[in-house]
Amino acid sequence: MNWERAPRSSRPDGGHDDGRTFEPPARPVGAASGDAPLVPPRRAGSLCVASGKGGTGKSVVSASIATWLARRGRTLIVDADMGVGNAHILQDVAPAYSFVDVVEQRRSVREVRVGCRPALDLLAAGSGVSRMASLSAHEMHLVACGIESLEHEYARIVLDSAAGISNQTIAFAAASDVVLIVTTPDVTALTDAYAFLKVLLQRRPDCTPLFVVNRATSAEEGLHVAGRMRAVAHKFLGREPRCLGWLPEDRAVVASVHERRPALVAAPDSDFARAFEPLAHAVAAELERVGARGLGRSLLRSVGYTPGFP
Question: Which domain holds residue 228?
Answer without folding.
Answer: 42-303
